[in-house]
Structures are given as structure tokens and as C-alpha cells.
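Minutes, project check-in
Item: structure for the 678-residue chain
Input as provided by the requester:
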Amino acid sequence: IFQQLSAPQIIALILEEHGILGDAYQFQIQQLCPARDYCVQYDESDLHFIQRLCEEEGLHYHFQHSREAHLLVFSDNQSVFRKLGRPTAYVRGSGLVADEPVIKGFNVRLESCTSRVTRRDYDFEKPRLQMESAYKPEAKSAEPDLEDYDYPGRFTDRERGKLLSQRALERHRADYLQAEGWGDEPRLVSGHFLELSDHPRQEWNDLWLLTQVTHEGKQPQVLEESITSDTESSDGFQQGYRNRFLATPWDVFFRPPLDHPKPQVLGSQTAVVTGPAGEEIHTDQYGRVKVQFHWDREGQGDDRTSCWLRVASSWAGDRYGAIAIPRIGMEVLVDFLEGDPDQPLISGCLYHQEHPVPYELPASKTRSTFKTLSSPGGAGFNEVRIEDKQGAEQIFVHAQRDWDENIQNDQKIRVGHERHDSVEQNSYSEFKAEEHRTTHGERKVEVKADDHLSVAHDQHIKLGTAQLLEAGREIHLQAGQKLVIEAASELTVQAGGSFIKLDASGISVNGALLKVNAGGAAGQGSGAAGLLPVAPLPAATDKAGTLLERAASQPAPEVIHRLSAVISPVPGVPGYEDEPYQLFADGALIQQGLTGADGVIRFEHVPGTQAYAVELINGHRFEIEPKEQSDEPESPHQPLARRGYRDYQGQMDQLEALNTKDDYRMAALNPVIPPKNQ
């Protein structure tokens, strides 16, 4: 596994592992290869792996031999190929022996090939962006329009996709014009230019890149002493030296064919989740984790064992869905997109001998559960368990600490038998409207401390038979205005052996001494000192996710806004006319072509676009911000900016055209040659 290394860096590591040190190989690369986040050498030899990396990046390699050493050269351009030296003459084979080594046969074939390449990919970090790049060098051509379209293109940015598309087209066209020859010139070496001379077709007397050379030699004296008796060639060749070769024109980019495909992972694999020492959960903002595969001999079980792996979920929306992040040490099932070992993702978790299931099996085979473990430390757990055993069905919920419920409308609970509530500390309830309770049997309430009841208005108590009230020390009734005690047949007030009795026969007063207006004072009650309840704490809440798409029943009205822009260095100067351009909406290519008269381009506004960008072939880039409805006053520069103008730090008399129109037309026909002032 190689991480954050470019293809040349990976190749260099492998070469040096085999004792091929830095003085024995060389990279001469014009286009830098980007670092690969994750690159796996899987089920392939070192040679196959190196050749595959070269083919994917469009790199070729050849050997340069000398008396002192042999140099392995990697490159992405033609400048590294050397000439063989003197020209080699063409002498048509006639059976006679020439005075010097010559080319005896030389045929050229031409075939139709791909004319444009399109690649598309997907980046989950930019899911709405259409990751598509295309390359077609010829603006106008008589060749048929033959497209090579492939997915996935294995890129995550437009520039990389465009380069890979260009490399693919160059690979298709590398041998569309190919020469096949034979002769007895022993100096022929692949990866070198052959300079052909004396051919009757003058246009073939040019430099040809040797891409393949097959050498053959025979010495009859040696063959007679060998154990084989097969000394005759089918074409009558009996002794001497000869070769056959393939070659392409010097000005056609050589790209190695894809003869070494990336091995595919057949099916899924298991791995172990890894992370830094001392952590139990290691993830990023997308819920991705890192793993170590069982076949990885270099991984240390830390946070550098792999790239970040996405984790599949049963449901995933915009801030809603389900998520369970695999924890360090868990065994997971890993799938590979398109069978690509460089694109793993986790599809599930697995139990094993050291990580048994939450409940013993098969004894608890009727139980389904989702049970977690407190982190860090693992001292507690949360669980939702369902028991489906006949006659013992149960739903069990355990919260290690808090339980919060938030119900936006009604809650209805029906208990078919008994209900038991046990609160070990305080209980708080608040009803912001009415409370209704009906008890069909007896109600038994025991308060082992004080009982405080506060009623803002009236309290009505109605009893069917009797109310029996007993206080161990005092009962104090107090009314702000009047107190009425009423009984239909009898009312008795009794204290200290004396009493007053009121009934239908009259009023009876009985006591040791009866005092009327004899002074003294009335007894005092303690007075009510009720305490108000504490308001309950609110339940935790969250906000809803976002709809992925607008509902079909509420389609958005289709409104087309057509925009135009003038591509010019500064206001008042003629725009860039007939210049190749590409138009991007928030980074996605939506239009390309040539600018119109005075540099005008026209396009339809893509709703929701935050910014447009126009990129010219000479590398200049213009940002265009679409004007939205706003109450803020518009600055004087915004209309010019929307028309494609940009700030120019200089004087008007210093302006000079970057290139002529002919320069741009030539660049459009052959993008390999940049404009002169690029």
C-alpha cells in the first residue's frame, strides 16, 4: 500500500528495493504526476505494477546503454529519445549482400482510430458537480467522429480528467501510422530514433521512433554441435544476423498501450478498523474510518494503515438517516468499487471468536438488539432490545445516562396490564394546558415529607360519601373574605372537652365555663406557606434534515435566464474574438467554443450558480458573478464584472494584444502547441 505518493515516487521505491539505485534510473517528466491518496499493489508482480503505473500516467521507459553503465529512463515526452547516429539507408532486399548494414524492407500502414476521448467520474465531496472531461485536438477533421467514453475516469478534478483524456487519445493515436521493417542493421535499439534514407518515397525519409525490435542470429557451426536438429528457417534464413522492427513517426506522441490492466478484487474482503494509539473511535467529518487488511505485512495498526474508507449505511439523506461508526478493533467487510483495490468501502461489521455477539447463541436466538458501549472507557452501554420469544415478548430500552423524548404532536400510551414507575430522585411535570386523570379503582398516595398544592383560582373537591381528614398537630383554614361551613343535619366543633353542636333541635354549648365578651384572644393558626414546583428541564431536540429533491407535486416553475459576457482585457478595448474558451458553472464545464464578434459569449443561466468562470486557451481566467435580487445598492464595478471585464493595473498606452487571431486558430487546431505568449 502506497499513500500520498506520485507514480514516479512509487516506481523509485520499488526499483531501489531491487537494488536499482538513483544513478541507474532517471525521470525526465514535463507534466508532474499528482500524488495518489491511496495506491495498492494487489495480485501483481513488481514489474507488472511498474508497467501499469507507467501506462496509467502515460509514461514510457527505455534503456540507454554505454560502456560504463546502463540507464533506465522514464519520460512523458519525445525529447528523451536519442538518434542512433548516422542515417540508415534503405536498400530493397534482392538476395545480394550490401556493403554495409541496411534496411531491406519498410512498409507503412494507416488505420482509423479514436478521434476524441471523454472521461466521467464521481466525487462524493462534490456530488452535484458533473465530473466530466473531454479532449479532442482537431477543430475540423475529415475523419469519422469516433469517441472513447469511459467511466470511472479515476480523477477528482477537471484538470486531471482533461490530462487523462488527452493521454488516452494520444495512446489511441500512437500507432495509427506505424511502420514495419526488417534488415540487418544491428544498431537498432527500441526507444531511439531511426533516421531512414534513400527510400523511394521521399516523405518516409525521416526520423522514426523504434518501439519494438526483434533480433535474430544464426551460426551453423554452433548449431551442428547442439542437441537440436531444427536448423532450418521457414524462409530459408541459414546464417548471419537480421532483425524486424516497428516504428512510429517522430512527431507522434508515444504512449504505451494498456497491456497491464489493474488486477481486480474478486468479491469482498475483511479487515480490522485501526486508529491512533489511545483512541477508541477514529473518524473524519464523513464518518469514514481506516482499516488494516489481513494481507498487509507493513501496516502497524495505526492511523496510517489505509486511506479513509466510506461506510455504507442502511439510510443516508441530507442530515438525516442512520449512522453507526465502526470502532477501532472491529472486523469489517470491505467491498471495492468496480473491483478496484484503490477504491475500498465498508459494507458491514462482523463478529468473531474474540468479539462475540451481545447475547449467547443459540439460547437467545429470538432476540434482536442494538447495543452500544460507552466511550472512552466502556463502563456503560445504551441498548434497544426486542425479544420475540413466544409468551415472553419484550422491548427493552436501556439508557446509560439521559433519555430525552421530543414529541411534536400527541403521545398515546396504552398499558394492557400494570404500569410501574420508579424515580430515584426528583420528578418534574409541567402541563401548559389542562390535565385530566380518571382512576376507576382506589387511589393510594403517600407523601413521606411535606405536600404543597398551589391553585391559582378555585379548587373544587366533591366526594361521594365522606372525607376524613386527620392532622397530627394542626389544621388551619383561612379565607380572605368569608368562610362558610355547612352541614345538612349536624355541625359540631369540639376541643378540650367542650363542644358546640348545631342541629335541627337547636344549638348546644357545653363546657366547664362559658365566657361571653369576657376578654381573651382567639387562637392563631400557622398560616399557609406553600412552595411552588420547579419547572421541568426541556428535552433535547434537533433540527430536521433537508429534502434531497423537490416533491414532484410541487414542481418549480421553469424560468430561463439568458446571459451574455464580453471577454476583454479592460472596458473600451475590443474583446478577444474567435478565441477558444471554456465556460464553467461553480467549477463544472457547461459550454465551450469560440468567442463571437468583439469577444461576446452567450449562455443560459443555471439556477443556483454562485459564480461562472471563462477560461481562455492562453490560460487567462475571468470570473463572472451572476446578479441576484438584492436590496443593497449595486457598486459601479459590478455591471462591468458581470460583462467579463477585469481589473488591469497599467496604462492604456501599454496594452498589447496577447496573440493574433491566427495564433489562436492554430492553437485551436493543434492544442499541443501553445500560443506564443502563453
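Outcome recorded: The helical segments are 7-17, 46-57, 158-173, 220-225, 638-642, 661-669.
No further action items on this chain.
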